[in-house]
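User: Predict the structure for this protein chain, please.
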Amino acid sequence: MKEAATFRPTADEFRDPYIYLAAIRQEAEPHGIIRIIPPAGWRCPCHVDFKSEAKIASKRQRIDLLQLSEPFDNGAAYTLNSYGHMADDFARGWVKSKRPRQDSLAARLDHDTLEMDYWTLVDDGEREDGVCVDYGNDIDATTHWSGFPRGPPQEDLSVVFLDAVPPFSQEYYGRSGWNLNNIARWPGSVLRHYAEPLSGVTSPWLYLGMLFSTFPWHNEDNYFYSINYHHAGAPKQWYGAPGSKAQAFEKALQDIVSDGGHALEDGSLHNINTMVSPYELARRGVPMVKLRQMPGEFVVTFPRAYHGGFSLGFNIGEAVNFATPDWVQHARAANEHYRSIARLGVISHDRIMFGMAHNCHLQTDVESCLALRDEVWRLCEEEARMRPHLYRVSGVRDLSAMLPAPGNNVHVCEAEDADFDDTRVCRVCRHTCYASIVACNCSPESLCCLRHVDYVCRCPASNRYLIEWEPVAKLEALARRVDMRLAYLRGEEYVPTPRPW
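Assistant: Here is the predicted structure, written as structure tokens:
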């Protein structure tokens, strides 16, 4: 396997994460995962509270059974301090049992040997003395701690405010876009207008790792980007494949698991509990890269890129998702894939698209604006074509006037908006119905999107009714708003195009 690309931005390049990532994207994205080493002077202290008595849940992982795709059991509950002591004791015990004649400290630092130990456990499969570790994953930084200082209000997040504080000072770390509490709210973020904190997506998760604790193969929810920062402790070993090879990756993984006598069900990778050797994946033609993340380093994963790995000892990491305007090119693929396997997206796809359309004056890239224009028009056309068909052909009744519902807030997604989205999910494909929904008199749970009216229940169509939250004319106006922005970016005169329906 090749080493993943490593980038070393200068202090000036490091000022704005979105501008920097846009500058390196063409070179970086084919790797799937990359490492970013901050400029000299970056020494952000780890702000977790080692004295806290708060308990952290863990997941118990049987390392020699990771190829079986079985759910992880609940592990013990730890304080941060007790987890660290447990992890260090396990690492010392492992080294002593495997290399009793070696100096224990030197052996613990032999990360290449520990990497071989790990893959021997995974590849050889079930052992009589099954090796179990506890992984402190998905710790909500809003309810426990973040390793970064808490950032200021969103309106104070920009390089203008950042430049007003001393470089690499405490206030600098609090205001930096590389602070994972800030990156989803930083100017240029697609998720900037999603005001309701969403754990792990717009607000970070903390991770406590120990020797061999594993983050199995997965790509991010909604094919978002992710960024991981290593606060302290032993390195993390990462492996990844480019998002453009996601289907080849899934096929190779299925073949490896099947060769072991097990079946990998469609969509089971979303459970994040399967680990197989990246070397075996590479032998099956999947381009793989690897990297070893040290304290003080960032790892960025690109849209749809599969990644996985494990820890080489006790460590503390933090991660969060983010999305740049170019992510729109991957959003539709994620949405259609999720609908095909009836998986609920973490954020409504349609809400993000129409929210971006409303805020398209912030778009500065022609390619990304073109992708947004195409997707918004597609969503608009689906509503415009299918609603009349359901009324005229299927006999579904339009009760929008009798059951008025508030329109969607396209400016920002507040808590009540997110709560409302949770109540209008298609029973068949788990799609969040943003603009309209079909319901049936037979049951309050018989809700579906326009595509699945014939599958939601066995009642006659006359028993069903449609509620429109957004008139097609309003959706069309948002689509034309993107048309105007695209014409501006191209330096062209805006000429309204005919409706495609």
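The chain has a mean pLDDT of 92.
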